[in-house]
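Fig. S4 source data, part A: sequence.
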Amino acid sequence: MSKTDTDRLDIDQTETDASTLVDWENPPSIGDLKQDYDSAKIAHDVHTTEVDAWLRVLAGDQTINAKRGRSKLVPRLARKQAEWRYAALSEPFLSTDDLFNTSPQTFEDKESAEQNGMLLNYQLNCRMDKVAFIDEYVRTAVDEGTVIVRVGWEFEEDQRKVYEDIMEQQPVMDPNTGQPGVDPNTGQPAMQEVKTGEKEVMKTITTKNQPVLTVCDYNNLVLDPTCEGDIEKASFAVYSFETSLSELKKDGRYKNLDDINFESTSILAEPDHSVNSDDGAFTFQDKARKKVIAREYWGYWDIDDTEEVKSFVATWVGDTFIRLEENPYPDKKIPFVLVQYLPRRKNIYGEPDAALIEDNQKIVGAVTRGIIDIIGRSASGQQGIRKDALDVTNARKFERGEDYKFNANVDPKQAFHMEIYPEIPRSAMEVLNMQNNDAEALTGVKAFTQGISGQALGVTATGIRSALDATSKRELGILRRLSNGLNRIGRKIISMNSEFLQDEEIVRITNEKFVAINRNDLGGMYDIKLNISTAEADEQKGSELAFMLQTMGNTMPPEMSQMILADIAKLRKMPDLAKRISEYKPQPDPMAQQKMQLEMALLEAQVQNETAKGQENAVDVQLKTAKTATEQAKARQMHSGSDLTDLDFVDKESGTKDDRDMELDSKKHGRAMESKEYDRQSKMAEKEHDRLSNLDKAAFDSLTKA
């Protein structure tokens, strides 16, 4: 058989295996997926080697080649720093019930955003173990430098026996006559449904329909090494997990389970996988419970043979495909979220504090072991006696603790010597302090190596404030990365809620409020924010609000004072008191309420009285206005008469009146003469007209006669 025929046979066999699961044009083979896994395993092993070394530093698991009788102590400097870091990073997430605070991008999305926030907080608080998840989330980041969270979905159904009411139609009896009543609308006997009993019914009930968050072991996830530090750019991720035949059948998504050889498969044959149990050698022997290693491949493949990749998921055990389908999640992305504790450039994995203080821990260990050897090799508490100081009898008395006599020729101060611990060299203590301070400066954690006191932070208020500011900034930077990881987790859960929740799912939000979540309102992209608060920040905000209330309380409206008091109660972690304050409405005093009503009636009467007075004043104004106009006219008339009298006097005194009279008479005479002249000329014209008329008539008569 030629090589070409062999390749074709392999392809046919692959297509036959994949055809039992999917109907794709170009399905991937197990060999293709394993090739990606083996290629990425090289870079993955480098990371696991680093993490193993960091965890050994954290656990103090250091090999000491000490001589017999010498100290082998390894101080846990890294663990001491980590213990102070755990609570500081986890408390901000656990100190509030509303971890997710969703805000809409537009006002139209406000209601949906609020429903998303309620649902996310409800799922995290009630459907998951929030404390366990946050503790593991934070501790994994601090210990390993990178925390990997797998965001999945759980769905389970179960057949349960429920009781349903048996309803029957019975006539409605008239209470007056005791006879069946009649429906006035139809004229038929009135009927009603009456419960007559109960019956048992087997019904399918959804027992689980919720997201699930899993903090993955760093050994069990192999990522695409070419993603340049961004998991969103990763082309694939291979996740291995322990399972059994019983679990695979219960899940319902896996097929070809009969093709798996559970007899010869064992988790001990998979050294690349980190087992979950403390005793990795233990394993079940029965087929149903025997643990096997399954690998889950999330990535992209040209499944349609169109040179365009699509997101898919494949799971195999050994050489058997048990799952092969397109990515079921709505965002079509790899369902893993990586958060770096101390990020490294162009690297998808981060570093823990142990990577920074490993050398400091070794130096502290060496100096500490030297100090212990100095003390341990001394014969402390032993007493030496000079040989000639006591005779045999007195030596026995001395050993029995009785009074004794020493030889006269021996000074007792020189005859007896007591062994004590030697002094520790000052240089050793200085080296220890220097290394502890250097470690605290590298990590930004003040672990109080000199004891919990004010001197541990500095000697001046300015120095203490500077140290706390620098420490809080370092801590806030880590918190931002951890909260950003939870932000991405929240976005993935929102997309899953929109796809996997039932049409109407009643979610209990508070003790007194039920909210109906519609999946059509859960599919948008929302501006998800996280309420991250530290005890120091809450204390500062509370003090500022209390100072504001103290300085402005007398002039501030009661409503604003109530708002500030509610905020102070929230910051003091008293949500019940904050709710009572925000909802508090003072009950009015009956006497004060009646007094207020009477005062309102008095004010209304006064307003009516003043209104009537205003109307009366308006009428008076009109009357006075009319009188004013009359008086003004009279005044003008009087002024005009006076002016005429004065003018007449002046005219008479100056002769102007006589001149004006003479001129008037002259004008009248002229007009009379003109009138007479006009009359004379009119009469002459009339006579001339009569004469001409007579002449014309005579001429006409003569012509007529001729």
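Fig. S4 source data, part B ends here. The CA atoms of residues 242 and 293 lie 5 Å apart.
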